[in-house]
Design goal:
By secondary structure, the chain is mainly α. The chain has two domains: 53 residues, Arc Repressor Mutant, subunit A, CATH 1.10.10; 142 residues, Tetracycline Repressor, domain 2. The chain is 73% helix and 0% strand. The protein starts with 11 loop residues before the first helix and ends in a 13-residue tail after the last helix. The model has no long low-confidence stretch (mean pLDDT 87). InterPro entries: Homeodomain-like_sf, HTH-type_TetR-like_transc_reg, HTH_TetR, Tet_transcr_reg_TetR-rel_C_sf, TetR_C_32. Keywords: DNA-binding. It comes from Antrihabitans stalagmiti. GO terms for molecular function: DNA-binding transcription factor activity; transcription cis-regulatory region binding.
Length: 240
C-alpha cells in the first residue's frame, strides 16, 4: 500500500481498502474453532468405532455431512494430520511434560517418562492405530513432528542433567533421538502384538535405557573416554 500524500483526502473506496476486513478475520477464527470441534469429534468417533473407521462413519458419528468435513479439511489425510496433532498437543505431550518435569531421581524419572508414553498409547490404541495405519501420506509429517518435539524435549532434560553433574553434554541430542525412537518403535511393535503386558514392556525398556545412562554416567558423557576402554560382557552369574 502506498503512503497517503500529505494533504490528500480519503475517498470511501480508499477508506474501505485501508480498514481491516472484520468479516474475513471472523471467518478465519470461526474456521479454526470449527476445525477443532470436528477434530475432537473425529477422535471421539475413532475411540468409539475403532481405527478402521472411514470418512462416512466419522461424519455420521459427528452428526454432519461428509461435504461439511471437506469444507474444513482438504481430504482424509488433512483430517488425519489434524487428529494426530490434536492428540499430541492435548493428551500425549501434557502427560510427557508432567512426567519429565517431576523432581525425581534419575532412575525414577526415566521410568516415569517411559510409563507415561506407553500408558498413553495403550489407553488410546485406536487413535494411534488410526493415524499410523492410514498410509504414508502427508499426515506422516504430524507423526514426525511429534517425535521430533518429544526428542527435543528429552534432549533439553538430558543436557541439563548432564551439565549439572559436570558431564560432557555433547551427545544429548543423539542420545535423546535414539531413546525416543527406540521407545516409539518398541511400543508400536507391542501395540501390534501384545505378547507381553504393558508393565513388562515398561520394565524392559527401562532396563535398556537405564543401562545406557549408567554407561554415559560412568564415562562422564565422554565418547573418547568410552572408546579408550575395553568392552566385554561380564561373566554369567551362576549363583542361585
Amino acid at each position: 500500500m502506498h503512503p497517503i500524500p500529505e494533504g490528500a483526502t480519503l475517498t470511501t473506496k480508499d477508506a474501505r481498502a485501508q480498514k481491516p476486513d472484520g468479516r474475513k478475520r471472523r471467518w478465519r477464527e470461526h474456521k479454526v474453532a470449527r476445525r477443532e470441534e470436528l477434530v475432537d469429534g473425529t477422535l471421539a468417533a475413532i475411540r468409539k468405532l475403532g481405527a478402521t473407521i472411514g470418512m462416512d462413519q466419522i461424519a455420521a458419528e459427528i452428526g454432519v455431512s461428509k461435504t461439511v468435513l471437506y469444507r474444513y479439511f482438504t481430504d482424509k489425510n488433512d483430517l488425519t494430520n489434524a487428529a494426530m496433532s490434536r492428540f499430541v498437543e492435548t493428551i500425549l505431550a501434557p502427560r510427557l511434560y508432567q512426567a519429565i518435569g517431576e523432581q525425581l531421581e534419575e532412575y525414577d524419572l526415566v521410568h516415569s517418562a517411559i510409563t507415561a508414553y506407553v500408558e498413553t498409547i495403550a489407553s488410546d490404541t485406536e487413535i494411534y492405530l488410526y493415524v499410523m495405519s492410514n498410509g504414508a501420506g502427508p499426515h506422516q509429517d504430524a507423526v514426525a513432528d511429534s517425535e521430533r518435539m518429544i526428542a527435543e524435549l528429552v534432549a533439553v532434560v538430558v543436557g541439563q542433567r548432564a551439565r549439572a553433574l559436570g558431564y560432557d553434554s555433547g551427545g544429548a541430542t543423539p542420545w535423546a533421538y535414539s531413546i525416543v525412537g527406540g521407545i516409539q518403535l518398541a511400543t508400536h511393535w507391542w501395540i501390534s502384538n501384545k505378547s507381553m503386558t504393558s508393565d513388562d514392556l515398561i520394565d524392559y525398556l527401562t532396563m535398556m535405557i537405564w543401562g545406557a545412562i549408567e554407561s554415559i554416567a560412568k564415562n562422564r558423557g565422554s565418547a573418547a573416554e568410552f572408546k579408550s576402554q575395553k568392552h566385554v560382557l561380564p561373566e554369567p552369574n551362576h549363583q542361585v
